[in-house]
């Protein structure tokens, strides 16, 4: 019985696993970038503590997008302007409203969307301005 490790077999196996991991990552990234996204603004007049870039956007509890930017409103620094990307297959109507919802014990937050009756028109922007989702106090 041979007690020495076969370094060529171990190296080939490690190399094959590394290549498989890279290929899987490229495969998964392709699906993430193939989705179509609609861009919206959400203007908050309350604190957005716990909300950050990459925070989820939920529609009735279902993950439908991400927060892309958070900035103070230049016209009024008491307001926070969030730019969000939402899956293009999710209809956002004019009567859809947004609130901030804490998602865990660690203080992380998400934007929760609700409402949006089917009879209401879809939310559209004006000219170059992104469509703005209305907010309600949480």
Q: How would you describe the overall organization of this protein?
A:
- With 138 residues, the chain is of the alpha/beta class.
- The chain has 2 domains: 1-34, no CATH class; 37-135, Elongation Factor Tu (Ef-tu), domain 3 (Beta Barrel), CATH 2.40.30.
- It has one helix at 7-34, and strands at 37-44, 56-59, 62-72, 80-87, 96-102, 109-115, 132-135.
- A 7-stranded mixed beta barrel has the order 1-4-3-2-6-5-7.
- The relative contact order is 0.20.
Summarize the structure.
The chain is an alpha/beta fold and 138 residues long. Helices cover 20% and strands 36% of the residues. The chain has two domains: 1-34, no CATH class; 37-135, Elongation Factor Tu (Ef-tu), domain 3, CATH 2.40.30.
Outline: elongated
Task: Give a short account of the largest sheet.
Answer: 7 strands, mixed, barrel
Percentage of residues assigned to helices: 10-25%
CA gyration radius, whole angstroms: 22 Å
Number of domains: 2
Strand fraction band?
35-45%
By CATH reckoning, the class of the largest domain would read Mainly Beta
Strand order of the largest sheet: 1-4-3-2-6-5-7
- The secondary-structure element order is HEEEEEEE
Low-confidence stretches: none
Number of strands: 7
Mean of pLDDT: 88
N→C terminal distance: 70 Å
Structural class assignment: alpha/beta
Features:
138 residues, alpha/beta, 7-stranded mixed β-barrel, 1 helix
Give the SSE map.
Blueprint: H1 7-34, E1 37-44, E2 56-59, E3 62-72, E4 80-87, E5 96-102, E6 109-115, E7 132-135
Parallel strand pairs: 1-7, 2-6, 5-7
Antiparallel strand pairs: 1-4, 2-3, 3-4, 5-6
């Amino acid at each position: 019985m041979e007690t020495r490790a076969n370094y060529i077999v171990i190296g080939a196996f490690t190399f094959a696993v590394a290549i498989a991991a890279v290929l899987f990552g490229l495969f998964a990234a392709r699906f993430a970038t193939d989705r179509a996204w609609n861009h919206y603004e959400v203007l908050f007049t309350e604190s957005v503590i716990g909300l950050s870039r990459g925070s989820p956007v939920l529609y009735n509890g279902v993950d439908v997008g991400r927060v892309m930017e958070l900035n103070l409103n230049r016209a009024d620094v008491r307001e926070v302007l969030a730019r969000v990307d939402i899956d293009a297959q999710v209809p956002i109507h004019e009567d859809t409203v947004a609130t901030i919802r804490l998602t865990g014990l660690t203080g992380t937050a998400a934007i929760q969307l609700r409402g949006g009756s089917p009879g209401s028109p879809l939310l559209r922007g004006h000219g170059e301005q992104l469509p703005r989702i209305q907010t309600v106090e949480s």
